[in-house]
Amino acid sequence: MSFDWDLYIKLGKKLCTTNNEEEVRAGISRAYYGLYNKLRIYKGLTTKFRPHKELIDKLLLAEEFDEEEDLSKLLQDLKECREQVDYDGIKRIDSQYSNRFWMKLEEALQIFNQNKT
């Protein structure tokens, strides 16, 4: 049985409900990877060198549905957020940052869920 990546998204959401910056950072990172892996599997990609770029490029082709291009842009924005929380120790990650991230992630999930075959 394969892992349910929605569990990563749910864990991320739970971690982001705290006031602890380290938990919010971890929550954003987990949620991003939950979405990323759902999309990667949907597009039939394996894990290999530069998997994020390959997935974003594949979504830009919009082969399955028209909104894949929008999904690609959202995933790129979310990836930048994930990189910031994982690598930028100077920027304060607060509830406003988390809320913006979650709005984008929920939009991406909505597009995906409405269009997946």
Characterization of the model:
The protein is mainly alpha-helical. It is built from 5 helices and no strands. Helix 2 packs antiparallel against helix 4 and helix 4 (68-87) packs antiparallel against helix 5. The longest helix is centred in the first third of the chain and has 22 residues, at 21-42.
Major pleated sheet: none
Strand content: under 5%
Q: Helix tally?
A: 5
Low-pLDDT stretches = none
Count of individual domains: 1
Overall body shape: globular
What CATH architecture label applies?
Up-down Bundle
Radius of gyration: 14 Å
CATH topology-level fold name:
Four Helix Bundle (Hemerythrin (Met), subunit A)
**What is the helix fraction of residues, given as a range?**
over 70%
CATH class: Mainly Alpha
Q: Topology, pairings included?
A:
Layout: H1 6-15, H2 21-42, H3 51-60, H4 68-87, H5 95-115
Short description:
It contains 5 helices and no strands. By secondary structure, the chain is mostly helical.
Features of the shown structure:
single chain; 117 residues; mainly alpha; Four Helix Bundle (Hemerythrin (Met), subunit A); 5 helices; 71% helix
